Amino acid sequence: MSVSNPTLITFVIYIAAMVLIGFMAYRSTNNLSDYILGGRSLGSVVTALSAGASDMSGWLLMGLPGAIYMSGLSESWIAIGLIIGAYLNWLFVAGRLRVQTEHNGDALTLPDYFSSRFEDKSGLLRIISAVVILVFFTIYCASGIVAGARLFESTFGMSYETALWAGAAATIAYTFVGGFLAVSWTDTVQATLMIFALLLTPIIVLLATGGIDTTFLAIEAQDPSNFDMLKNTTFIGIISLMGWGLGYFGQPHILARFMAADSVKSIANARRISMTWMILCLGGTVAVGFFGIAYFSANPAVAMPVSENHERVFIELAKILFNPWVAGVLLSAILAAVMSTLSCQLLVCSSALTEDFYKTFLRKTASQVELVWVGRAMVLLVALIAIALAANPENRVLGLVSYAWAGFGAAFGPVVLISVIWKDMTRNGALAGILVGAITVIVWKHFELLGLYEIIPGFIFASLAIYIVSKLGAPTHGMLQRFAAAEADFRLNK
């Protein structure tokens, strides 16, 4: 443990800094809007980096490098799909969603927005969308807790059970205390740390293996097909990996960043910052996994932990190649990736329970202070359920993420995208879209049909359901008026 002491000290300092930010945000949190959306006050840099960090969870530094290490560049289609999807999300959804939520009852959550946008008096749209959020986000939270547990387990030699609680405790602490502002401010710090780690590590691995030529020769010697983008892939396989990009349109924790921007004018600048950050991070991630093939084939004596669990490739490279203090900073980047996403997800679940169940159905007259404290209690409740789900040490980070990502992408993606660009969408169309998207993902995943990633059929069927059912009815005059006003606002200010 003596070698790990500098790493442990770095971790403790890092976690203390995040919790301190939580307490600073606590002082700016006066009502539920502050707790859930930070009072819509995020500038372009914080909007951009917090959207990026909340998106890129533990899979960025564990799941994806592990997949590249095992299979070579053929796994990088997922990164290409994500970059395209994220860009289109910024382009078509970000600014429009910012103004639409403001024009539709100053909505704080997606269920809130759907309810106002489609004048749903029955509460059915709100309940179903909140249930979808709770089901898929609890699975998503579990993936973050698994990633944190793997990190603590391999860095400090803890048992999986102890690591599970150690990894989750810090995130729960600052989310509980500071709410959305804490999550967004810490995300900005964490995004900076992640890009530092992902640019530095592949460069040092290259130097350790003797430069570019030697590294590429070693990768080729291990298996020439590592360079083949089409290795062991089929058309369906490539489409499945690229299909991850569709998920962006429906991720509540990313969409919340757009809703919280201080104005539409901030969005264009935020898009440029966020996409640059994302391309550099994903490039670094692919490079870590790819160069890791060369390093561990040249040093088989230290390859043991990676051969047992390929998702540890970044962790092991950081521990072997860097001074323990620097390794502590790099490993904190994994903790940053885990904490940034987990905190957003806990907050979105909390806001769904507080705004969409407690306030709407149980306590319409609840004070702002009461709602903030109920929100905090819900953070703890969801976290405990996610820890219980993550308790199986056989869990793989990427597997849990892919299911939750597909669930949101198919259930909410078409509804969000179509609701901000098509004025004739109706309440029944939105309801059909959410139900068809969610059910398709669950059924497709269960039967593993055609080997196709379940987000793709889910997204297509949900979009068709929205169009067909909307055509059977008509939007009200009020819905058309609000849509037109929001669209005019967007065009004037973008």
Protein described:
The chain is mainly alpha-helical. It has one domain: Up-down Bundle (Sodium/glucose cotransporter), CATH 1.20.1730.10. It has helices at 5-26, 32-37, 44-55, 63-71, 77-103, 110-117, 124-156, 160-208, 211-222, 235-242, 252-259, 265-298, 304-308, 313-321, 324-362, 368-389, 397-411, 413-421, 427-447, 455-471, 477-493.
Give the strand tally: 0
Named at the architecture level, the CATH assignment is: Up-down Bundle
CATH homologous superfamily caption? Sodium/glucose cotransporter
Average pLDDT, rounded to a whole number, is 87
Number of domains: 1
Instruction: Name the CATH class.
Output: Mainly Alpha
CATH topology, which one? Sodium/glucose cotransporter
Sheet with most strands:
none
Q: Return Rg in Å.
A: 22 Å
Task: Describe the secondary-structure layout.
Blueprint: H1 5-26, H2 32-37, H3 44-55, H4 63-71, H5 77-103, H6 110-117, H7 124-156, H8 160-208, H9 211-222, H10 235-242, H11 252-259, H12 265-298, H13 304-308, H14 313-321, H15 324-362, H16 368-389, H17 397-411, H18 413-421, H19 427-447, H20 455-471, H21 477-493
Helix pairs in contact: 1-8, 1-15, 3-8, 3-11, 3-12, 3-15, 4-12, 5-10, 5-12, 5-18, 5-21, 6-7, 7-8, 7-15, 7-16, 7-17, 7-19, 8-12, 8-14, 8-15, 8-16, 9-12, 11-15, 14-15, 15-16, 17-19, 17-20, 18-20, 19-20
